[in-house]
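Side project, low priority. Logging it here so it doesn't get lost.
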Amino acid sequence: MASMAFSRALLAALAISTSTAALAQETGGASAGTDAADGDIVVTAQRREQSLLDVPLAVTALGGDTLAERGITNSAQLGDAVPNLQINSPYGDTQPNFSLRGIGVANEYNSNQASPVGVYLDDVYLAPRTSHGMGLFDLDRIEVLRGPQGTLFGRNTTGGAINFITKKPGLSGTNGYVQLGYANFDTITAQGAAEATLAEDVAGLRLAVNYAKGDGQIKNIFPGGRDAASVDTLQGRASLRVKPTETLDIVLRAYGGRDRGTQAAVHGLGAFRTGLGFFETDENRIGENRTDAWGFSANIALELNDRLSLTSITSYDGGKQDLQQAADGSPLDLLDINWRSRYRQFSQELRANYDGDGITFVGGLFYGWDRNITDNRFNLPLPPAGGFFQHYRQVRKSYAVFGQADIDLADRLVLTLGARYTTDKSRYDNAFAYLFVGGVDDPDTPIATTVPCAGVAGTCPYDPDARFALADTNHALTGRVALSYTFDSGMLLYASYNRGYRAGAVNGGGYTSSSGISYIEPERVNAYEVGIKGRAGGRLLTYAASAFYYDYANQQLQDTRAGPVSFLVNAPASEVYGLEVETTLRPVDGFRIDASLGWLHSKYKELTLQGADLSGNSLPFAPKLTAQLGFEWDMVDVAGGKLTFAPNMAYSSRQYFSPFNAVDAPGTPQVNSELQQGANAKVNASLSWSNDALTVRLFANNLFDRKTYGYGLDLRGAGFPFNFLVPAAPRTYGVSLRYGF
């Protein structure tokens, strides 16, 4: 049945592609990495510059102007612009969880877990998920690669990869911009960039900054309580480019940022929801999302001759999080958590690119190291008041060798062969946890060691010197095989097989006992895909479509049980298939329509949790249907500038937040039917006036104030009388003024 359904989906995708010429996101303007000659978007999805329409992959490319038109200012909002991309977090915009085509961290919330959707900043892999919640400013473009990227990106990319590409100095002239904005919730925004050429065609410097500060978007009725989901961010970036010769190009980048906004609101204990609106809470301890991130990188490109070039990318990044989460949504101290972690990472990639007669090759070596030191404190309703303190250190090392070749079999027929061999080593050590007595504001008084302790919490006497350690090593061979053909019309047809891999992981949520702390198996996915992309009617219509089938093994899930006890487990087998369509239509000058559609079928072929057979259930954060539709209309020339109207709509069908879907485990107080969000559509819109230097923009996001949840977690099964639900953002609106020079 599944294979028949996939075949129908495949035929449907091809029919849509050829008869209605659907899908491939194309955005105009130089900021989107366009080629001035024909307007094609130039991307580096295969680690070399290519037109988006020549890449045999499902890729969405979004330029800086497009992000502004759609009201996307943070990475957590990208789901409104990319088909089959869902983004969620228990902490608001902090530590976003990306899910592509149903593959994500599912209901996992611990900071030590790697995202199966690899996140990159200027080709630098960002291991800590806290660093993924970045503000978007002064970007050239964002490339979202859907499907396993186990060859050229490689590390932990079973779902895909997202590459944020910043603007670099152009080495000619001086330019920049200043943008100021004001929005509801008394939100002030400011950003800008300035570029100076230090030596024409030789050296240039670009500086960029981003600031936002605003009141909480969720009203807190607790007397004297802070409103939830406020904004307080500051970020900066400096890029120095030196090109001493025509063959040597060096880009040095440094960035830093901090976030001090308040925590996301929680819909928790039902007794204190009476009489409250959806965007209201009654919470005595709204804490801060205190996060910091910084990093340095050096990208050195050397052309040895017309055919061969070398690239070295070196980076060192760090940061920390201190999340003060009141997880009960009430004026009682039922569940208060302090999530604290510090991060460091280093990576080095050496890459060679060869472009010869009939063959193009990209290959190289990769080394990555990252460290996470965590100190979490959980205050629970224990008699007397108390909770658990948890400490551990996790160090991961990754080594890889990779290569991919495009071989011309015949005129316009290309065979792609790629492989990557990866060794991942991980060590979890210096781990301990203890049960303590003390209120939220009191110092800890340890009374029992829980890690290491194989028994029930409180049964092992307190030992301040007790430590727990584990180590694990994984080896993986991943790769890609693809065949693509370009027709005389320029239409590209491709079929591919990709194998993806996500390293095994240790349970970062084990603090009540060491019996649940162990390494689980790596995730693996075998992905089959066919696709088509091209143009019709000159530049009238740009389209792309793809259909895919995944054989997905060992998805890593968090299973929360009474105690509260968390176990990290594998879902043995899953199946995912679907299709995607993207299109840009330009019926007349000054009017552009962008549309995309994602259809997804996901299910667990084999999964049993807490005695409940969940086979046949949908994967979490995997709605069956997502769609985006918008247009940009230059309505009239007035006062020396253009008045442009740009509305867009993002639709999502129902999605579950838990692998249980609406099933409750036997003998538990679970109410998992609460852990879902029904079908919904959100509308954003902007009206702007612009000339060569100035842009004035009015905007509204979630225009009709749709009330939706962005995240949910089972707490009833863990022994609490409520589930954990996080409301998404309400309507926001405002005005901005941008001056370019």
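Brief comment: The mean pLDDT is 92.
Revisit when time allows.
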